[in-house]
């Protein structure tokens, strides 16, 4: 009985410590400087969404250096105005979609005359 109690206690401790380490925010959560960053770091799904948006943004930036201004604008006018998880989830979902559409458009411009993805 004592052994199972110890194992359960260790599993509980590890279970609460591991998700923090598994977060993949695009910034160092130890240096989270704003309430929005703290919310992102506290929520594994938001942290993952932040990292995914960062990956898409970096890909778009390689194709379109002007994307930097759009990202800054989104951070200032959308993401950083959120005050809760629901708002941030919606903001990240919408931005993820916008970045994907921009990447598709830039890829099509980079390869004129290429067949649509469904026909390749």
Automatic annotation (TrEMBL):
Lysozyme inhibitor LprI-like N-terminal domain boundaries: 29-90
Domain of life: Bacteria
Lineage summary: Bacteria, Pseudomonadati, Pseudomonadota, Betaproteobacteria, Burkholderiales
Any single Pfam family the record assigns to this protein: LprI
The keyword Signal is assigned to this record: yes
This protein's name: DUF1311 domain-containing protein
Signal peptide region: 1-24
UniProt-listed InterPro entries: LprI-like_N, Lysozyme_Inhibitor_LprI
Keywords: Signal
């Amino acid at each position: 009985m004592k052994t199972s109690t110890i194992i359960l206690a260790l599993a509980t401790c590890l279970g609460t410590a591991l998700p923090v380490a598994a977060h993949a925010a695009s910034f160092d959560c130890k240096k989270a400087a704003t309430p929005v960053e703290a919310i992102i770091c506290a929520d594994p799904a938001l942290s993952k969404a932040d990292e995914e948006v960062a990956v898409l943004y970096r890909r778009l930036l390689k194709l379109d250096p002007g994307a930097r201004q759009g990202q800054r604008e989104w951070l200032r006018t959308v993401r950083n105005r959120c005050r809760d998880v629901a708002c941030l989830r919606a903001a990240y979902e919408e931005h993820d979609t916008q970045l994907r559409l921009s990447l598709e458009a830039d890829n099509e411009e980079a390869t004129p005359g290429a067949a649509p993805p469904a026909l390749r």
